[in-house]
């Protein structure tokens, strides 16, 4: 995979993960109070919107949920407020991406690692999206070593292949040298 292909993949990944924010931001007149509260990064406003009848599992056009939006902006307090108000972390968008996948795509290290440590986190670690890419596949091209190491430490399997047959380990070696891959994936139990 050449550097042009990697850049295109990163742009596509960021674009796809950003759809939930772009869809919600496209027309402020059509945004719900819940989406406004998430965009404002206000957990108190999130809880108030849900108490006033907002659905914590509402779907945007791309299937993204409020939890995915909170993950994409990297806001743990908003994510916690949504969870506490009944948001379902098991939901996936139309591309099969979880909240963890959205956070990883946008390089939200703290958010990604926090999600991976939650009771529902292990079910997301190796969960592929519609393209067969796991959060680790998504994180590797970002170059966020702390994110990649953290996902591996949480149980991400670098040997899982996507639909094209490319594992996280192979992807890493296509982008980085051996020492970098060993450093990032070294926590994996071979």
Q: Which terms summarize this structure?
A:
single chain, 190 residues, mainly alpha, Serine Threonine Protein Phosphatase 5, Tetratricopeptide repeat, 12 helices
Explain what the structure shows:
It is a single chain. By secondary structure, this protein is mostly helical. The chain has a single domain, classed as Serine Threonine Protein Phosphatase 5, Tetratricopeptide repeat. It has helices at 3-25, 33-39, 43-51, 66-73, 76-84, 99-105, 109-116, 122-125, 135-139, 145-153, 168-175, 178-185. The protein is elongated and about 55 Å long.
How are the SSEs ordered, and which strands pair?
Blueprint: H1 3-25, H2 33-39, H3 43-51, H4 66-73, H5 76-84, H6 99-105, H7 109-116, H8 122-125, H9 135-139, H10 145-153, H11 168-175, H12 178-185
């Amino acid at each position: 995979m050449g550097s042009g292909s990697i850049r295109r993949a990163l742009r596509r990944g960021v674009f796809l993960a950003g759809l939930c924010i772009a869809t919600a931001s496209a027309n402020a007149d059509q945004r719900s109070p819940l989406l406004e509260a998430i965009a404002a990064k206000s957990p108190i406003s999130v809880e108030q919107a849900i108490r006033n009848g907002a659905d914590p599992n509402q779907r945007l056009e791309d299937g993204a949920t409020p939890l995915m939006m909170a993950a994409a902006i990297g806001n743990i307090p908003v994510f916690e407020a949504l969870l506490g108000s009944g948001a379902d972390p098991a939901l996936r968008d139309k591309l099969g991406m979880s909240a963890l996948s959205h956070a990883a795509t946008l390089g939200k290290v703290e958010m990604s690692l926090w999600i991976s440590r939650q009771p529902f986190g292990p079910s997301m670690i190796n969960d592929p999206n519609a393209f067969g890419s796991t959060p680790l596949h998504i994180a590797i091209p970002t170059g966020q070593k702390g994110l990649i190491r953290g996902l591996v430490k949480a149980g991400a399997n670098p040997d899982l292949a996507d639909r094209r047959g490319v594992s996280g380990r192979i992807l890493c070696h296509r982008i980085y040298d051996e020492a970098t891959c060993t450093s990032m994936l070294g926590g994996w139990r071979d």
